[in-house]
């Protein structure tokens, strides 16, 4: 049978007198993870937006190129 390391919740929160250091380390770790996840989500969204812009630009260029070939006749040759 396992014995708990702390006899009560207040003893757990006090961490044997090292609560400040322990909870500061826990907070720093959790804050780092939250920032990492947020930064990853923002970068992912920016990448998807950049891909959409690039695809839209390519489509506009293709559409513009097809208009040029259909509206401007080729030059006539003198024979």
What is the strand and helix layout of this fold?
Blueprint: H1 9-14, H2 19-71
Structure description:
The structure is a single chain. The termini are far apart. It contains 2 helices and no strands. It has one domain. The protein is mainly α. The radius of gyration is 32 Å and the shape is rod-shaped. Keywords: Cell inner membrane, Cell membrane, Cytochrome c-type biogenesis, Membrane, Transmembrane, Transmembrane helix, Transport. One of its GO terms (cellular component) is plasma membrane. This is Heme exporter protein D. The chain crosses the membrane at residues 20-43.
Low-confidence stretches: none
End-to-end Cα distance, whole Å, is 104 Å
Specify the structural class.
mainly alpha
Radius of gyration: 32 Å
User: Mean pLDDT, nearest integer?
Assistant: 90
Count the strands? 0
Separate helix tally? 2
H-E string: HH
Q: Please state roughly what percent of the residues sit in beta strands, choosing from under 5%, 5-15%, 15-25%, 25-35%, 35-45% or over 45%.
A: under 5%
Outline = rod-shaped
How much helical structure, as a percent, in the residues? over 70%
Compose a concise summary of this entry:
The protein is mainly α. The chain has helices spanning 9-14, 19-71.
Descriptors:
75% helix; membrane; transport; Haem_export_protD_CcmD; Heme exporter protein D; transmembrane
